[in-house]
Design goal:
There is one protein chain. By secondary structure, the protein is an all-alpha fold. 68% of the residues lie in helices and 0% in strands. The chain is built from eight helices and no strands. It has helices at residues 3-24, 38-45, 53-81, 84-98, 104-125, 141-147, 149-161, 167-187. Helix 7 (149-161) packs antiparallel against helix 8 (167-187). The longest helix is centred in the N-terminal third of the chain and has 29 residues, at 53-81. It starts with a helix and ends in a 15-residue tail after the last helix.
Length: 202
C-alpha cells in the first residue's frame, strides 16, 4: 500500500477523533458557565492584559485566518513536492485554527492530539533512518487543486465569514467545505508511486 495514502487515512482518523473530542468537550465541567468557544474565551482573557475583549476577539480572528491561509499554502506546496513534513505542518496550522470554534475545555483536549500526531509525522520524515523518495515528474496542478479543495474551502470560509463573529454559521460553512473537499479528493487521480532516489552515488 502506498505509504502516503496510508498516512492520509491515518490523519483523517486522528483529526476526526480530535474534532469529536474538541467539539463534544466531554471533560468540560457541567458547572462551567464561561464563553462557549475558545474564540471568545481568548478574547476575554486578553482583557486581563489591558486589551479590550472586542479587540482581543478581532486579534484571535486574524490569527485564525492567518493560520488557515498558512496551512493551505503549506499543504499546496506539500502536494506539489510530495512532502509529508510540509503537509503535517500545514494540517496542524489548519487544525489549530479550527480549535477556536471549540469549547475551551474541548480545545484543550483536541490541540495536544493534533500537535502530538503531526510532530510525530515531522520527526519520522526527518529521521536519519528514514529515506525519502523523489518523484521523477511533477504533480499535475489539477490534481493538487483537487486534493486541497477542502483546505482552500476552509480558508475561504474563515476569511469571508469569521468577521460576522457567528460560530454557528462558520461551523456550517466549514462542514460544507470539508464535504466538498472529500468529494474532490475522491475525484482526484491517485498519485503515482515515486521512484526511489539513487543511493549509490557519492
Amino acid at each position: 500500500m502506498n505509504e502516503g495514502w496510508s498516512l492520509q487515512r491515518l490523519r483523517a482518523v486522528m483529526y476526526a477523533v480530535a474534532m469529536m473530542v474538541g467539539f463534544l468537550a466531554p471533560l468540560q465541567p457541567a458547572s462551567y458557565t464561561g464563553p462557549r468557544t475558545l474564540w471568545v474565551w481568548l478574547g476575554v482573557w486578553q482583557s486581563t492584559m489591558g486589551i479590550s475583549s472586542t479587540t482581543g476577539i478581532v486579534l484571535v480572528t486574524w490569527l485564525a485566518v492567518a493560520l488557515t491561509a498558512l496551512g493551505t499554502g503549506l499543504r499546496l506546496l506539500a502536494a506539489a513536492r510530495r512532502s509529508s513534513r510540509l503537509q503535517a505542518l500545514g494540517s496542524l496550522a489548519i487544525g489549530l485554527a479550527l480549535c477556536i470554534l471549540m469549547p475551551p475545555f474541548g480545545a484543550l483536549a483536541a490541540a495536544p492530539i493534533l500537535i502530538a500526531y503531526e510532530v510525530t509525522v515531522v520527526a519520522m520524515a526527518t529521521s536519519p533512518t528514514s529515506r525519502s523518495s523523489a518523484s521523477a515528474s511533477s504533480v499535475p496542478l489539477l490534481s493538487i487543486l483537487l486534493q486541497e479543495v477542502g483546505s482552500l474551502g476552509i480558508t475561504l470560509a474563515f476569511a469571508a465569514l469569521s468577521w460576522q463573529y457567528n460560530a454557528r454559521i462558520l461551523e456550517k460553512a466549514l462542514l460544507i467545505a470539508c464535504g466538498i473537499g472529500l468529494m474532490a479528493r475522491a475525484a482526484a487521480p491517485a498519485p503515482s508511486a515515486p521512484r526511489p532516489t539513487d543511493q549509490t552515488s557519492a
